[in-house]
Design brief:
Plasmolipin; transmembrane helix; 0% strand
Amino acid sequence: MAEFPSKVSTRTSSPAQGAEASVSALRPDLGFVRSRLGALVLLQLLMIFNISATVLYITAFIACSAAVDLTSLRGTRPYNQRAAASFFACLVMIAYGVSAFFSYQAWRGVGSNAATSQMAGGYA
């Protein structure tokens, strides 16, 4: 037991100087982002964003379409505004849905086969 205190290092580090430490702590790890795992994580985040945006725009489309009063006169300002909002929500919903579909396909790896990609070995 007498050897124990001699093996323990009690040296302390001084706190970092100024704003340089706070800036370096907030710097993203670009090596991770450039790695395959980092790319997959970013792809999953984009896919989740696209899916949730699609759901929100579906809700907006339904709400705007329900707000267009069928008994109101066509060509009046409120009717045109609600119809335009419904149309825009539908277009954006379709765009986000297609983007989410392609993000899912890329995440799932459709179109690439591990056996054929290994067999080619970069000689193609």
